[in-house]
Design a protein that fits this description.
InterPro entries: MHC_class-I_related, MHC_I-like_Ag-recog, MHC_I-like_Ag-recog_sf, MHC_I/II-like_Ag-recog. The protein is of the alpha+beta class. It has 3 helices and 5 strands. It is 27% helix and 25% strand.
Length: 125
């Protein structure tokens, strides 16, 4: 099985990163990166407000899509909202791809199955 790398993402100050979430906000974004070949998009981002799914992006469609009815209306008052959001998420997709490749190099994972190391095998006397 390929390794999944994900992190909660919440809006926050400009220096905010997905690995430094702001606690106790009612909105959350989850970004997930996965190596190619797992049968999933390589990058997925989902947004939630108070536990309700509000939007979705994945690397197969490369589009930000509203998932809540009220979010679909955001484009009426701000016609560029979905294009801006899509560009931001495409940037995160690219960053996750680079970061995942960096991790694979650091942990000598060029391919094959990922997972915890196997326990040592007992030696015969």
């Amino acid at each position: 099985m390929d390794q999944l790398w994900g992190s909660p993402r919440q809006p926050g100050p400009p220096n905010h990163t997905p690995f430094n979430p702001v606690p106790n906000w009612h909105s959350q974004y989850f970004y997930t990166g996965v190596t190619a070949g797992a049968g999933l998009p390589e990058f997925i981002a989902t947004g939630y407000v108070d536990g309700e799914l509000i939007d979705h992006y994945d690397s197969n469609t490369r589009r930000a899509v509203p998932r809540a009815e009220w979010m679909a209306r955001v484009g009426e008052s701000d016609p560029q909202y979905w294009d801006r959001n899509m560009q931001i998420l495409q940037g995160w997709e690219a960053r996750f791809r680079v970061d995942l490749n960096t991790l694979r190099g650091r942990y000598n994972q060029s391919g094959g199955e990922w997972g915890p190391p196997s326990p040592p095998r007992p030696t015969s006397p």
